[in-house]
Amino acid sequence: MISRYFMLLFIPLFSIDLFADESLEDLMNVESEAKVDIGSRDGAKNYFDAKSAVDVITAQQIEQTGMSSLTNILRYFVAGFNAPNPSISDGSDHVRAFTLRGMSPDQVLVLINGKRLHTSALLHVNGTIGKGSSNVDLDTIAVDAIQRVEVLRDGAASQYGSDAIAGVINIVLKGYGNKNKVIIQGGERQKGQGKRKFISGFISIPLKYDGFINFTVDTIKSDKTQNAGLDRRLTPPVVSTHYGLPKATNYHLLMNAEIPLESGSLLYSNILLNKRASQASAYFRTPDPSRAIFPNGFLPMIHANIMDYSATVGMKGEIFNGIKWDLSQVIGQNSFAFGVTNSMNYDLNSSSPTSFNNGKLVFSQYTTNLDMKKQINDTIALALGAEYRVEKYNIYAGDKASYIDSGSQGFAGFQPANETNSRRENYALYVDTTFNFTPKLSTELAGRYEKYSDFGSTRNIKLAGTYKVTESFRLRTSASTGFRAPSLAQSNYSLTSTYSSGNTIKTKGTFKTTNPIAIKHGARALKPEKSQHLSLGGVYKGENYYFMADYFYTRVNNKVMLSGDIPINIGNITDMRFFTNAIDTKTEGVDLKGVYNYKMDDDKQLDITLWYNYNKNTILQINTPYITQANSLTALDRIENGQPKNSQRLLLNYKTVKYNVTYNFSRFGSYSQVVSGVSQRFDPVMISDAQLSYKITKRTNLSLGGNNIFNTRPNKWKNSGKFKGYNGILPYSNYSPIGFSGAFYYVKATMRF
Amino acid sequence: MVIIRSILIFLLSVNSLFAYQSEDALKVAVMGKIAKYISWPNETSSFTITILDNPFGKKVDIAYKGKKIDGKKIKIIYINNIKDLPQDTKILYIPKKDSYKLTTILQSISSKNILTISDIRGFAQKKGILQLYFLSRKLRLKINLGVAKKNDLQIRSVLLRIVKIVKDES
Questions:
Q1: Is the Cβ of B3 closer than 8 Å to some Cβ of chain A?
Q2: Which CATH architecture is the domain B19-166 placed in?
């Protein structure tokens, strides 16, 4: 019976005659198909024409989430996108690592209006998802400035350069004609925790010839959440530590402008600014009467002061017989300053300060691009381009008291010996050509050459094609090679840090690969990660629905990761580690996605999206003796089992003239984390998000909503442990894909003028 | 099982008007639709729509094959050079890719009573008549009344309620 109904789905419905059937006003109410600019350089494509799997998240959809974090928005919409909320993980509490298809956070390229966005200066070095990587901090972007987010689910390093291994995320900013808008939102979690206030303003100033200058400014103030268990090191046990979302204040300012010139050329620019002050705790330090300060114990607070900016200026136009050109310059910088309060340096004892400046990380990126493309005839399109990029990475030392001897408790400061002023440059040349052999068969061949000043050159190639089996059914495939340049942070980062091991706290040093001690223990200059990709899929579209199925395979050789802890005895450092081209991995899986849109004749519309993602990471080979199952079980298990292998989304949106109701169901498959040498498996988790919006007046909407509305929490640890354990300080795993802070309910007012 | 069956029956039985359409389909549809709101000074036996440097493939032919506007048969002409413009053209579509030669094109057809339509950015301000653009993925129209008047085109007031009127920047 069911199969008969499914058969019906595959019978193309009759075509609607827009000219004959609809009035002009009706036509102006029809939404056009979303298109993406990424994935191919021969013009924007929709989901059907694209040669790789692409997805679009629109501003209207974002507005229905009630979310002010782009990281959360992507987790909401994209199956296979994972972004845990770790806690007591030093800097990783404040910059969310995210992954696509279970791969590393630094294996996703992020673009703003098609231009490369810089990564965070922070290198995740604690035991979180994404350990050993630096990712783009998606939360530096004001969400109300976004017109749409495009997601390319395919390797594309041969088109866009380093990092585009798991996929590419292109954030397109609002352009001409958007209405001015103010959003005021407030909400909290259960028991009054995690209060959040979000105020955002968007203003668009029209310029001649449909030019514009848009400004978005917002502030987000979030209170911490508390999920810590009893500290059984204390008698009697009490909750001593903070475990949950940090207390944070975010300010965003974003400008996006396009100035069309009389000649037909276009001058464009955008500026993104983000300032974030965030604080979270380290572990509680237990009482010790020998300490002159805090003899009754203390909870060190780690502060992150993040400043991020990106500025783009460029010009594009058309010359001769349709040659389109685009010349741009982007500069971007992220700085992450560490501070610690309510702490002390044990060795300084009574003379120790209680507040420390622990140093700063700065990453800067300067990118110059020239792109040219031409549609030569109906069958051939050609794109050529060049890129020149300079990257800088700096570590600045903190106060002497923050690093001397045992250093400030909670987070030892960066020392003068850690300071670095590293720089590299690279240039790239690319060619990308599309050839339509027949009206049914379209192919794309892309090649890219890059030369880096630190590790040399790399050449990559991509071949992709689509075949139109029928007007409604299209097959697509791509095969490519790619790479990821080791980040300057991975090559130049060094620090001494404390961590929990079993029931004790130990000190370890992360050494540069050029450090003589590290070299003595086997460290070598890092090589790029090399990847190979294969995807095969198809898309079927009906009159008001479509279905996509895509298989993907990615092999990564020489993946960079931290070595296992190597026992040494230098000062108070008992273990050392360094970055190395450690392992070869493969990732394979499938994406199945179906979308149904039903527009009723009285301005009502129902949209349904179902999306299933399966991905499996496998370590094929370990290339270094410094990573073994014995000393790196946690890290190796994290790569293979630390993230859900499958996830599902069900998105429902029903709208009328007055109402808009959204329901989102997300399921994340099981995941594992190693504690005390044993891998523990956590059950799948399911959460629901919902929002009801009502149009009070023509210009004002009021919304009520919630994220994780049924207050789902992940499993607690199965083991007993003073730190990680069901009855420990940290009852939940930091790998939890939904965090562990439960439901968030909010009310939101939106005014347009 | 019953739930799945019910959902499928619901999804397949509903009389959906239309889902999302391609931008091209909307542009093509509006070309003919707009004619109902405009009066041309010169009477012709057929209604000629000329497409310069055709960006639509076969979409225009498919949409207008056998159709009529004001009882007149629609004739679709494709040209690659503005010099080949048929005398009886009522609507001329100028694609985005011709933006670099827009001034020349518009000068060559000035005062020929032709409704020019384009999706070129700033088209209406650049002495074109009807500009098509998309806002939040919905088709929007801008009209330059000054240029329309110079071409003796009469615009019905009902159209002016749903389009944005721009000033002639000449």
A1: no
A2: 3-Layer(aba) Sandwich (3.40)
